[in-house]
Design goal:
Pathway: Nitrogen metabolism; urea cycle; L-ornithine and urea from L-arginine: step 1/1. Pfam families: Arginase. Belongs to the arginase family. It catalyses: L-arginine + H2O = urea + L-ornithine. There is one protein chain. The chain is α/β, with parallel strands linked by helices and 306 residues long. The chain has one domain: Arginase, Chain A. 36% of the residues lie in helices and 16% in strands. It has an 8-stranded parallel β-sheet with strand order 2-1-3-8-7-4-5-6, sandwiched between helices. Helix 1 packs across helix 10 and helix 3 runs parallel beside helix 4. 54% of the residues are buried.
């Protein structure tokens, strides 16, 4: 895979939407794991734009079904503007979270860019969770459980309107992979909205290769592929450094195959890396694994055949 576009690394050091503290340290852990140098070793041009500023986490209980809504909106506005600016400059934005609520800003910006450029959008959501809660059905009020719903127009105006059009995306553009923890009300809502979900049972029965073939089907040269990679997608045996571990995730080899097949399309145009929590990690092991997998997204391959 040859990628001519420069990469822009955008650090977003906040756990404002999360259920436990620590994801705010995720961007630095990825830098400590040599993300920039490892990508540059593959011939890529990488600009680290540093960390976005934003409000501190007040760590308060939910109000009206949301925790920290004002601060979540502020962070996501900053993410939207930074990601949109990177895309306007012809760069490939890599948003280093931070918790997964930040994908609202990131994907709103990508969707806006696609509308302006006349491109189709495909979003791959690699996650243990569907993240399709609303204030009415959330058990916790944590906004990192709501980003896909907000992007599809189900959420507070401060989050659904970020990219200027509501909804920012249709559920039809999303493919969720690795899902294995969904709240009861959320499950009903996912079915109502007809979200395409390849859960772990599907991967067990059909294999990661067939799953990815379906998730990547019908991509063409006019498709912008966005990957939102929640590190809790991975099995906690190999990736313990996340706040919401769910047993039974993809193995190292399954995750590598997933990333390599995305790279093979040559369509990857923006990326979120979220929910890495160094406070819960062992010697930065999860960050190093995440960097290894990100390298594979950008063309590092185990392929020995000609």
């Amino acid at each position: 895979m040859s990628l001519s576009r420069p990469l822009s690394l955008i650090g977003v050091p906040t756990d404002i939407g999360a259920s436990v503290r620590g994801a705010s340290m995720g961007p630095e852990a990825l830098r400590v794991a040599q993300l920039q140098a490892r990508l540059e070793a593959h011939g890529l041009t990488v600009h680290d734009l540093g960390n976005l500023p934003g409000p501190a986490n007040p760590w308060l209980p939910p109000r009206d079904g949301y925790r920290h809504l004002d601060e979540v909106v502020q962070w996501n506005r900053s993410v939207h503007d930074a990601v949109f600016e990177a895309l306007q400059r012809g760069h490939l934005p890599v948003m280093l979270g931070g918790d997964h609520c930040l994908a609202i800003g990131s994907i709103s910006a990508v969707a806006r860019h696609c509308r302006e450029q006349g491109k189709r959008l495909r979003v791959l959501w690699l996650d243990a969770h569907a993240d399709f809660n609303t204030s009415a059905i959330t058990p916790s009020g944590n906004v990192h459980g709501m980003p896909v719903a907000c992007l599809c127009g189900h959420g507070p105006a401060g989050l659904t309107t970020l990219g200027g059009v509501v909804p920012a995306i249709s559920p039809k553009v999303v493919r969720q992979i690795g899902i294995r923890s969904v709240d009861p009300g959320e499950k009903r809502f996912v079915h109502e909205q007809d979200l395409e979900v390849f859960d772990m049972r599907y991967i067990d029965e059909s294999g990661m290769r067939h799953t990815m073939e379906l998730a990547l089907a019908t991509l063409d040269e006019n498709t912008h592929l966005h990957v939102s990679f929640d590190v809790d997608f991975l099995d906690p045996d190999i990736a313990p450094g996340v706040g919401t571990t769910v047993p039974g995730g993809p193995t190292y080899r399954e995750a590598q195959l997933c990333m390599e097949m995305i790279a093979d399309t040559g369509r990857l145009a923006s990326l979120d890396v979220v929910e890495l929590n160094p406070a819960l990690d062992l010697r930065n092991r999860t960050a190093e694994l995440a960097v290894d997998l990100i390298e594979s997204l950008f063309g590092k391959s185990t392929l020995m055949r000609k």
